[in-house]
Amino acid sequence: MLVERSEILIKAGSEEAFDAAMRERGVPLLQSVPGVKWVKFGRGVENPDKFIILVEWKTMDAHTAFGSSPARPKLHEVIAPHSRGGAMEHFNLS
């Protein structure tokens, strides 16, 4: 199982708009990408300007293919206006 963990730091004052955009557009978009098994999205409790996106991919190849798919720039359009940075990691889970 390949799980991608993305932490996104959101610009002050943009947290609610980002949350709504991800729930309305970002999560459904990710769920529609070939090779995605599931998507989880949430907001930090201690740091409410930090959000997490967890995605389980069927394979690393599916994740790699997403990078050149039409869905990638659409997801960027949802995230970029609100983001002030972040980090992404991938984990092989058993």
Overview of the molecule:
It is globular, with a radius of gyration of 13 Å. Helix 1 (15-31) runs antiparallel to helix 3 (71-79). The chain is α+β, with helices and mostly antiparallel strands. The chain is built from three helices and four strands. The N and C termini lie close together (6 Å). The protein has one domain (2-92): 2-Layer Sandwich (Alpha-Beta Plaits), CATH 3.30.70. The model has no long low-confidence stretch (mean pLDDT 97). It has a four-stranded antiparallel sheet with strand order 2-3-1-4. The relative contact order is 0.32.
Low-confidence parts, pLDDT < 50 over ≥5 residues?
A: none
**What structural class should be given to the helix and strand makeup?**
alpha+beta
Beta-strand segment tally: 4
**Proportion in helices:** 25-40%
Give the N-terminus to C-terminus distance in angstroms. Answer: 6 Å
Average pLDDT, all residues? 97
Name the shape in a single word: globular
Instruction: Give the C-level CATH assignment.
Output: Alpha Beta
Largest β sheet strand count, sense and barrel closure: 4 strands, antiparallel
Which fold name is given in CATH as the topology?
Alpha-Beta Plaits
Short synopsis of the structure:
By secondary structure, the protein is of the alpha+beta class. It has helices spanning 15-31, 60-66, 71-79, and strands at residues 2-10, 36-43, 50-57, 83-92. The chain has a single domain, classed as Alpha-Beta Plaits.
